[in-house]
Amino acid sequence: MNEEINVLVVEDEDEPADMLKNYLEVHGYQVMLAKDGDEAANVINTSANSIDVAVLDIMVPGEDGLALCRRIRRHPVLSQIPVIFLTAKDKEQDEIEGLGVGADSYIPKPVSLNLVKAHIESQLRRYKPNRDGWLTFGEVSLSTEAMEVYSAGNRVELTNTEYQILKLFFQNPRLVYTRQQILEHISPEEKFIFDRTIDVHIKNLRIKLGDEGELIKTYRGMGYGLNKDLLSPQI
Q1: With the CA atoms of 117, 71, 152 and 158 taken in that order, what torsion angle do they form, in degrees rounded to the nearest 10?
Q2: pLDDT tens by residue, 60-80
Q3: What is the CA radius of gyration of the chain?
Q4: What is the pLDDT of residue 233?
Q5: Which pairing describes strands 53-56 and 83-87: parallel, antiparallel, or unpaired?
């Protein structure tokens, strides 16, 4: 490969999973391996900006491959990536169901590793990863270019001030900001209001983000920022 391509592989059987991972890595791919659907969902939530293509076994414990594909297709950052189903289910109706939820390719097991690689390369020729400007934490994604925010796949309508505050937190996820520091980063007309108004903006942000509102934490005596307990350890 001429550039680093990251492949999410979801396979619950140890030997096939390790063989596919090793084979793809030998051929220049970076592989994120998940052994069940819940682990895969966590990878999607924490590493969306790093996934270029997904190879999913349909019948895995936890969230199955069909549900994972739906999750990917709802995700603002990942919605266009190639999704390849690798499965022992080979009936025509199973293939129709897999393609119906948004898969790009469907390969019945058993299958050669070289064929899997060929499918990945074929799909990547049609798709060029372009996730510049997206920041993702948990199930919340923010576009710094389009000024859009999505929570659990649904677009969230924010005011400009709310968007600027969330953008500040996303761009500096390990920092805690005082109310005054937040005021200094939002639109000039807002700088003449009382800093306690920031509390109202934070409250509204949490409400609009729904279940993901817990991503924003109040650090008593300090200010506001992202909830460090919910962030990926690599951040």
Answers
A1: 60
A2: 999 999 999 999 988 888 888
A3: 20
A4: 46
A5: parallel
Instruction: Provide CB contacts within 8 A for 122, sequence distance 6+.
Output: 105
Q: Which residue has the tokens 């005021």?
A: 183
Nearest to 100 by CA among 63, 125, 69, 56: 69
| Cα–Cα nearest to 45, from 55, 60, 32, 30 | 32
Residue boundaries of the structural domains of the chain: 5-126, 134-230
Instruction: Taking residues 160-176, report their average pLDDT.
Output: 90
More confident residue, 68 or 97: 68
- Would you state the pLDDT for residue 99? 73
Task: Compute the Cα dihedral for 48, 150, 166, 163 and give only its sign.
Answer: positive
**pLDDT value of residue 103:** 87
The residue type at 231: L
In CATH terms, the fold of domain 134-230 is Arc Repressor Mutant, subunit A (1.10.10)
Write out the CATH class of domain 5-126: alpha beta
Is 134-230 in the same CATH topology as 5-126? no
Say what the pTM is.
Answer: 0.67
Report d(CA 80, CA 60) in Å as an integer. 23
φ, ψ (nearest 5 deg) of residue 219 = -100, 100
Q: Supply the DSSP symbol for 213.
A: G
Q: Between residues 55 and 103, which one has the greater pLDDT?
A: 55
Token look-up 């020729």 returns 125
